[in-house]
Amino acid sequence: MNNKLQELTERLYNEGLSKGKQDAEQLLAKAQSDAEKIIAAAKEEAQQIVAKAQENADKLKSKAESDIRMASEQSLQATRKDIENLLVGATISDKVKSTLSDSAFIKEIILSVAQKFTTEQSLELSLILPAALKDEMEAWVSGELSKTLKSEVKAEFSKKIQGGFTIGPKDGSWFVNLTDESFKELIAEYLRPVTRKLLFG
């Protein structure tokens, strides 16, 4: 009887142990499978993060290169423009200034322009001249010019004008600007393309 009880106990123990082992192995296999899935998912997510980061880095690099290129081109254009302006300015500035500060030359042009206006339109004219020429021009305007045009000509002298003059009707409805600055701008417009071609091809 004792033997049978002993056998039964051992059998129950072995079956319980075998079942426990089997359950443990199943749990271990499931845990390993779950762990492999988690690792695979983590690797995939990591790869996606790295791919996204690389894509963003490539976009940022491309934008930075584009911005640098654009800034370089703008800087080069601005430098070319500065060189062009310096050369054109140096070429014409002194010559225009000296020519349009010559009272004899200005008198000749004023007379020519004024006669054209008064002959065709019978206008009373107003002049704006450089303040520096007041001593040389004031008496001529009120005397010889007014006499030649058979009409009083009003003259103002401005420190804003370095050379040349502005002429138009007294009512200010329009005017012709023949100052040194307007001449420089006009001449520069013709010189710039030539200068640009010589300097930069």
Structure report:
This protein is of the alpha+beta class and 201 residues long. The protein folds into 2 domains: 91 residues; 101 residues, hypothetical protein PF0899 fold (2-Layer Sandwich). It contains 4 helices and 4 strands; from the N terminus they run ααβαβββα. The chain has a 4-stranded mixed sheet with strand order 2-1-3-4.
Present the secondary structure layout.
Elements: H1 2-99, H2 103-121, E1 125-130, H3 134-149, E2 154-158, E3 164-169, E4 176-179, H4 180-200
Parallel strand pairs: 1-2
Antiparallel strand pairs: 1-3, 3-4
Helix pairs in contact: 1-4, 2-3
Output the keywords.
2 domains; 201 residues; single chain; alpha+beta; 10% strand; four-stranded mixed sheet; hypothetical protein PF0899 fold
- The CATH superfamily of the largest domain bears the name ATP synthase, E subunit, C-terminal
The secondary structure category is alpha+beta
Question: Strand percentage, roughly?
Answer: 5-15%
What strand order characterises the main sheet?
Answer: 2-1-3-4
Tell me the CATH architecture of the largest domain.
Answer: 2-Layer Sandwich
Q: What is the CATH topology descriptor of the largest domain?
A: hypothetical protein PF0899 fold
Number of E strands = 4
Largest sheet geometry: 4 strands, mixed
Q: What is the average of the pLDDT values? A: 77
Number of domains: 2
Q: What's the Cα radius of gyration?
A: 48 Å
Shape: rod-shaped
Q: Which segments are poorly predicted (pLDDT under 50) over 5 or more consecutive residues?
A: none
Query: What separation lies between the terminal Cα atoms?
Result: 119 Å
Spell the H/E element sequence.
HHEHEEEH
Main CATH class of the largest domain:
Alpha Beta
Number of helices: 4
* Helical proportion, percent range: over 70%
